[in-house]
Design brief:
Elongation Factor Tu (Ef-tu), domain 3, 2 domains, mainly beta, 211 residues, 12 strands, 6-stranded antiparallel barrel, single chain, globular
Amino acid sequence: MFTGIVEELGEVTAVEQLGDSARFRLRGPLVTDGARHGDSIAVNGVCLTVVDHGDGEFTADVMAETLKRSSLGALTPGDRVNLERPTPVGGRFGGHVVQGHVDGVGTILDRVRADHWELVTVALPPALARYVVEKGSITVDGVSLTVVEAGDDRFSVSLIPTTLALTTLGVKGGGDPVNIEVDVIAKYVERLLGHRVPGAPGAPDTPEAGS
């Protein structure tokens, strides 16, 4: 489990295409310190498994489902990425519950600059809109953020100077894709209550009788 507090701004150093999958090599001296084969590291909000590591870099395989559901397939050598290690038991819980299981890809629509912060508006896949609420939590490229406004096809978030300086959200502009993970608690509540909509993440093709 992660909390959406990015530890390091890493870099893609190599991408090897393997048919319907890919192998990434990424530089991240902080997150690889003490890493072992099989450990998890979130890359732009996507939980990946360490295959190999050394000299401040690590390698991870990305399967077809992940490439399809996230923006990782568009990464090229030299691109910067947000990196976070899983939260240890007893560690500080600075953000919110983040699984590293991306629900879809959004697109940055607009940025409004203020003196010390920015308001960023992101287009949202329609099937995810009902999970996003004003003042609720959302993960954008692995960054835990609070929703300022929520609409049917978009939402906005405010970025503080630290987020602008230490994550990829500080440099992404209009039209750039971002990975979206909605609050998993909302999805569990929906399923438990039987309020299911066809096409939603984890939902059946048709609602259950009586729902």
